[in-house]
Specification:
The complex is a heterodimer of chains A (194) and B (58). Chain A is an alpha/beta fold and 194 residues long. Chain A has two domains: 33 residues, no CATH class; 144 residues, Nitrile hydratase alpha /Thiocyanate hydrolase gamma (Nitrile Hydratase, Chain A, Alpha-Beta Complex). By secondary structure, chain B is mainly α. Chain B has a domain of 26 residues. Helix content of chain B is 62%, strand content 0%. Chain B has three helices and no strands. The C terminus of chain B is likely disordered. Classes of the chains: A alpha/beta (194), B mainly alpha (58).
């Protein structure tokens, strides 16, 4: 055992390592390409991108209109796009409607603006229960949606990836766009926070 | 998996359907990542790039 491996690799770690070795040996991938992908997800993609989109929509009504009309193009205006973000739809929260996103079949998720999905998003419980009992699931995230507010559940697919545009917080009039972006979290943009 | 799809010119859907199948067929307690790996192994198998049997879970 080396210092790099403080514990015995699990069965799943061994399977993944074997697949990587196989693909590298066959010349189907290179370790440099894998490292580049990992660096992209660690450094270039993530909820900060989505937060920038939301904040810009909050301060620029014309941009918000474009975002709600053609999300993919509007998001690209800010330099974000690519794999798993080709067909984006932005869902606007209002005082009367709260949107929440799930992928019931697997884990479809808008990578360019949210990065990789959190573990709970991929869980069987979230995928199944969000459709059946969305208010209960939201409550477990600490989000209690008033009875008078409609909860809309959106099922992501390979064809459509959703991003929730939360309501701009009350009392945020004096904040800069950058400061506003700092208020937006991944969970707001999935819709499990309001 | 992303690198492999890009390198072989395959769309995400080529993997996604296998992921859906793997999740649907997963035994109680199997994690998402196990299903993900199973789906990738299935894709490679279909492409004639068989993963080493010794590494698979029984």
């Amino acid at each position: 055992m080396t210092g790099h491996h403080p514990h015995e690799p699990s069965a799943i770690e061994q399977r993944v390592a074997a697949l990587e070795s196989l693909l590298v040996e066959r010349g189907l991938v290179t370790t440099d390409a894998i490292d580049a992908v990992i660096a992209t997800y660690e450094e270039d993609l993530g909820p900060l991108n989505g937060a920038a989109v939301v904040a810009h929509a909050w301060v620029d009504p014309a941009y918000k209109e474009r975002l709600l009309t053609n999300a993919t193009a509007a998001i690209a205006e800010l330099g974000f796009g690519g794999a798993e973000g080709e067909n984006m739809v932005v869902l606007e929260n209002t005082p009367a409607v709260h949107n929440v996103v799930v992928c019931t079949l697997c884990s479809c998720y808008p990578w360019p603006v949210l990065g990789l999905p959190p573990r709970w998003y991929k869980s069987a419980a979230y995928r199944a229960r969000t459709v059946r009992e969305p208010r209960a699931v939201l409550a477990e995230f600490g989000t209690v949606v008033p009875e008078g507010v409609e909860v809309r559940v959106w099922d992501s697919s390979a064809e459509l990836r959703y991003l929730v545009l939360p309501e701009r917080p009350a009392g945020s009039d004096g904040l800069s766009e950058q400061e506003l972006a700092g208020l937006v979290t991944r969970d707001h943009m999935i819709g499990v926070r309001r | 998996m992303s690198v492999y799809l890009e390198r072989t010119g395959q769309p995400w859907e080529a993997f996604r359907q296998r992921l859906i199948d793997a999740i649907a067929a997963a035994p109680e307690g199997e994690t998402y990542y196990e299903s993900f790996t199973t789906a990738f192994e299935a894709l490679l198998g279909a492409d004639g790039v068989s993963p080493p049997e010794a590494t698979k879970l029984s």
